[in-house]
Design brief:
Length: about 350
């Protein structure tokens, strides 16, 4: 654990502290600017600042990726939809917005609260679009491949030598996950599950940290992503469950027959509540952190005071540093409980 915390501290000091100081306020300004467009029915220079719009715009998924105000500050993502009436259609989400950035129908489709419908019937379409979170997912996956292919290459080239560069940073984390998380909970057959558990840990860790960058998408705070990870854990756990695991669920040994009537539904419900708890825990922890940070930054625009701005920036910086630790803790907790559930389902019966 000490090695892990030292590694985390080194990572924070080298890569993120400066970014957090420079860009914390910048990210909020970019989000706020988008929500302060001119009202077509008012003569004022800008409409009232609405913090809820800023926060929801960051937390929720979207068909566009907005970085800063202006024509070149928005990335319009590809829309891929299917309906029985129109078949497959592929076009840019730019077509849903006019020059004033107002949502308009396009080619028989309409965009309403980030959902696409047929304009005539209002029927929902099958949406396969590359949304903001999907694009962030690709970035996260590409970063994982880039780093770990480089680490694997370094291991092949430096066999028997001390690790260098990124290899020296990643190796203590891998050893920590193996020795402190996987082996104690799964046992001697842990190697079978190491690839999945390492991928799970680093996917969540990188997604959490990338989500703290200004303008980044809320990948691991999206319940669809956490649900997918939890479902994969659920499948691996129960597919690999041995005879002892299932017998303890359906015919708990050493329990009087009348009590088994009560225990059986509890055990069956427990099969499903375990992945649900994984899904909710990660989703709530990451989303809540983003909401707290954006709420504190919004105080600057609500009060319109430079003193409140300075104070909130200091607090936000402190919260951001805590969120880095939370990012690592949530990756650790998700991987720990996954290893624990797998270990419970594959443990040999010693009785």
């Amino acid at each position: 654990m000490i090695v892990f915390l030292n590694t985390l501290s080194q990572f924070r000091s080298r890569f993120l502290c400066v970014l957090l100081i420079v860009f914390s306020a910048f990210g909020a300004l970019a989000q706020a600017a988008e929500n302060q467009e001119t009202d077509s029915h008012a003569n004022a220079d800008h409409k009232e600042f609405k913090p809820s719009e800023v926060i929801l715009h960051h937390v929720l998924d979207d068909h566009i990726w907005h970085f800063w105000d202006g024509h070149y500050g928005t990335l319009y993502l590809p829309v891929i939809v299917y309906s029985s009436e129109k078949g497959f259609d592929v076009f840019s989400s730019r077509n849903f917005y006019n020059d004033h950035h107002e949502v308009v129908p396009y080619n028989g489709y309409k965009l309403d609260h980030n959902h696409i419908y047929l304009a005539d019937s209002g029927k929902a379409v099958f949406d396969l679009s590359i949304t903001k979170n999907v694009a962030m997912l690709f970035i996260n996956a590409a970063l994982l491949l880039f780093i770990f292919l480089g680490v694997a290459k370094a291991y092949r080239q430096n066999t028997g030598k001390a690790p260098k560069g990124i290899q020296s940073f990643i190796e203590p984390i891998i050893l920590f996950v193996r020795d402190e998380v996987v082996k104690p909970n799964i046992g001697h057959h842990y190697e079978k599950y190491m690839p999945y558990l390492l991928t799970l840990f680093f996917f969540i860790l990188f997604g959490n940290i990338l989500g703290l960058l200004p303008g980044a998408a809320n990948l691991t705070g999206n319940i669809a992503v956490t649900m997918t990870l939890a479902v994969i854990t659920f499948i691996i756990t129960n597919v690999n469950g041995n005879k002892s695991y299932w017998s303890h669920i359906f015919w708990t040994p050493g329990v009087p027959l009348p009590l088994r009537i009560v225990i059986l539904p509890v055990e069956i419900v427990g099969i499903f509540t375990k992945p649900i708890s994984l899904m909710i825990r990660l989703f709530v922890a990451i989303t809540a952190g983003h909401i707290v940070i954006l709420s504190l930054i919004s105080l600057t625009f609500i009060f319109g005071s430079i003193y409140v701005g300075v104070a909130s920036s200091v607090v936000v910086l402190f919260i951001n540093l805590i969120e880095i630790l939370v990012a690592a803790i949530q990756a650790y907790v998700f991987t720990l409980f996954t290893a624990l559930y797998i270990g419970m389902s594959t443990a040999e019966d010693h009785h």
